[in-house]
């Protein structure tokens, strides 16, 4: 074996960072930041809820709203009532009218290297033509249109076309199965589907239409389908009787102007399902006024987006992050948003850095799981590129462990870009807890304080706030414009899922419960510890999975770890650690010993893993989150739960075989 890596270095760094090393945003960033006045927190607090006019003011309204917040039917809150607007007008027409018609709105990069750039006026033209096409098919205001499309420009075009005519969209991630498509179309009685023939993955054409057709066979009503021809001759583009060709439809309507429908602020803009990390996905309803103003406001304040920027969120639009921060937030602000079709390691592991360099990307937003993959591949890939155009970095989706944070800071940001670690959910519509990059200092591993106007707290089981330094449950004690309004057609589940735990119905006090555990420090910085159910009970001791994972990824040579509890005869539950190693590390016994030692040193012998299972991959959702519940099933030898929202279902069996429970 090659020379032993210096184990202490990794764990020591993790410990040092955990102890609260802080970073100030560089002065050069603060000087130009959209928000740099620390008073903003007090301003929002003192003027709540009127402070949210600031978010609404980022938009153009056809009809001014009368009331910022109506709470007489809490927790069914209503925002900006009386106001009317159109989301596609806000993302397109007004920029064209303001003289930005030749600015790039979307810069799209195909996996095989082809590119397409849409200026704001190009995009408006395409959106109007498709909006007219949808109308021709019979789509009316409030009809739900399902979009089952990969990362091609027709996806945001279709979203904005729906928004233009007041038809809520429901985007189903292209990687999802036929069943997932059918379930979602049935649940929403969606009679319209936009899909495509196929797309590329690692250079190979995938047949998407076949999957869509299979899904349609499970839909219990008639559906009008539109098919985008992505692959041309590569794949026989068979339409079938009830399907329409996108190009053909659009060519009949090119040049038509479609008046944006004036929507009530509280009218539904879209329906989006949660990731399904912890169970059945929930259908979240977002509205036109509150959601859009919140997406625009957070893009402005947290992502520091300016119209002249080139901004890149490397997520999939099939996830809420892509809705808020590839499409609606950036386009509402009139900036240039980059969209990449493919995988980050195709054709080489430097693909993303190549794109940053080529497009002079100013702001880059991704997920910790991606950062850990970059780290695993090594710094030689970003080192090949000039990344000096970058000004700000962001992460979302999972807690980021300090070592990955540091790697991102050093090797992507060159020590000069603030990092915003943004906590939020499908349900919250936009970011909730994060530092403001031009205001607060950064603490690696901690998301930061709640955003101005957001009353997030850490409470104990009875709802009392915990002392600084302690862990508890995260709650949000006041409403915000981007919040979900309900679970689609299921008010009851909306109430029981989010409002039952800590609200006092009699006193009409409503507390939103995101079901995450968290810790708070003396400065009010919040560290997310993971899902409330991600706690392992070993011989009566309650251990947070996230803490153990952080200790494991602090060991040199470890790229990623997932820790779960599995049934154990004596201890009740035991710790099972699934580990991905860095490319240059080997799965030796000494490696396993170092991992076990790392956990014992950081937390104590009680947390000692019963088994360390080295695996090349972990089961993940489309947004890159590890599905721990499946790993728990494996560890306990149970039947596997729902895998329909997994990105890589095949790895589950591989891992099960290794553990010997398959
Ligand atoms: P489901 O609700 O169906 O189980 P999900 O919660 O994974 O799926 P999302 O809405 O995509 O669906 O994810 C939100 C969750 O992601 C948060 O509740 C939190 O657990 C986690 N999360 C998001 N951002 C961060 C972050 N910056 N730090 C820590 N955790 C985060
Ligand atoms: Mg959730």
UniProtKB/TrEMBL annotation:
Its EC number(s): 6.2.1.1
Residue ranges constituting the AMP-binding enzyme C-terminal domain according to the UniProt record: 547-625
Domain AMP-dependent synthetase/ligase: 100-480
Residue stretches making up the Acetyl-coenzyme A synthetase N-terminal domain: 39-91
Pfam families (UniProt xref): ACAS_N, AMP-binding, AMP-binding_C
Domain of life: Archaea
InterPro entries reported in the protein's UniProt record: Ac_CoA_lig, ACAS_N, AMP-bd_C, AMP-bd_C_sf, AMP-binding_CS, AMP-dep_synth/lig_dom, ANL_N_sf
Keywords: ATP-binding, Ligase, Nucleotide-binding
A GO BP entry: acetyl-CoA biosynthetic process from acetate
Bias (Acidic residues): 1-12
Single GO MF descriptor: 3-hydroxypropionyl-CoA synthetase activity
Protein name: Acetate--CoA ligase
Lineage, top ranks: Archaea, Methanobacteriati, Methanobacteriota, Stenosarchaea group, Halobacteria
Originating gene: acs
